[in-house]
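User: Continuing from earlier, I have the next pair ready.

Assistant: Great, send them over.

User: Here they are, in order.

Assistant: Folding the first of the pair now:
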Amino acid sequence: MSIQLNDQVIALINDPKTLKVLASADQDGIPHVVFKGSVSVNADGKLQYLEIIETSQTNRNLVHSIWFRRQVAVGILTQDSRSYQIKGTPVRAVICGELFEKNYIAVRERFGKDADLSTVWIIDPEEIREETFSVQASREREAYPLIGHLDRF
C-alpha cells in the first residue's frame, strides 16, 4: 500500500548532498546494495531512479522486482547524520517518451555526451522508517523496556 512522503523527507531525498543507497535482490534473493545519487522524488511523490547501465545488476534486479512485485529499499543519510529507510515496489520502467527524454538530457549534461540512460524506474513508497540512532534507540526502549544492559539498572 502506497504512502505519502512528507515534505521534509522529500527535500532530504532530493538534496544532492544526501547519500542514497539502493538495495535490491536478485532472483535467488541475494542482496545487492549500491550507492545511487540518481534517486529522487518525482512530482507524484514516487521515488525515481535513473539507471544508466542497461546490463547492471541493479537493473536486472529491478526487472525481477517489477515482474514479481518484490520490494526494494532506499537508505538515505543526511549531512547531519539523520538516517531513513524507505521500502517500496517498482511499478514502472520508463524507456521512452517525454519523461525518459527529459532525464536522458539531464544524464548527458551531468556525465557527458557519451553517457546513456537505460531506464527511469518509478518506485512506489510503501513504508518509511527513521533509523537515526537516537530515534531507533528510543523506539527500542519503549518497545522492550525490560531489555537492557545491567549497568543501566
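And the other member of the pair:
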Amino acid sequence: MLTTVPAASRRRLALDARTGVLLLVFFGLVRMALVLQANVTGSYQLVSLVFVAMAVLPWLVLTRDGRRRIGIVRPSRWRWVLPAALAGGASMLAVFAAATALWGLTAQNPFVYIAGTYSNVPASPSDADRLIYFLIYAVVSMLFSPIGEELLYRGMAHEALAPRLGNRGAALVDAGAFAVTHLAHFGIVLVAGVWAFLPLPALLWVAAMFLASLVFYGFRVLTGSILGSIVAHAAFNLAMITAIFYVVLA
C-alpha cells in the first residue's frame, strides 16, 4: 500500500554544520559576484533577487518547528525592539563618523563610494528629487537586505552551526561571513573603470560589518525573535541611506 509523506516532512532541511557552511559559502559567493558585476553595469536587480531567495528559503526547506528554531516567532521581550532600532542606527553613525574622520568625503570613505554606485541618482539632486530618491532607497534598503540577510545569517546559518560551535562560536562565524561578503560593496572598488583594493578602508569596513553583525545577533537574543535583528539591521540601513543622501550627496 502506498503511503503519503506529509508535506512538512518533505520540506525538512537538516540544520547541521555542513548545511550552515554551504549556506554561507553559496550565498556569499553568489552575492559577491553579482554585486561586483552590478558595480560595472549599474543594475542591482539580480542582487535584490538574492535577498529575496534568502528570505523565502526558510519557507521552502524548513518545517514550522525549523522556522521557529531560527527565530521566526513573536518577540518574547518586546521592550527590546525599540532599543534594537536605536542601536542599529547608532552603530551606523559611529561607522560613518569614523570613516569621515579618517578619509573625509573621498572615495576611500565607504559611504562615498557606495553613493557613487547609485548610478540613477544625480550627483547634485534638487531637494524634491533628493527626497524622492531617499524614500525609494530607504524603503528598499529596509526591506530586502535586512529580512533576507537576517533570516540567512542570524537565522538558518547560525542555528545550523550552533550545535557544533555553540551560540558564541556560531555568532562569530556568521558575523565573519557577513563581513567578508560586504567587501563586494566596498573594499574591492571600481574607479574610472579600473579595479582596485583599498586595504585600510577595507579593514575598517569589514570590522564595522563584523561588529554590526554581532549587534544584530545580540538583539535577536534580547528580543527572543529574529525580528530583533531585522529591526536593528533595518535601522542601520536607514541611517546609512540618510547619511548618503543628506551628507554625502548634499
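Worth noting for the second one:
Strands lie at 188-191, 194-197. Residues 127-181 form the longest helix (55 residues).
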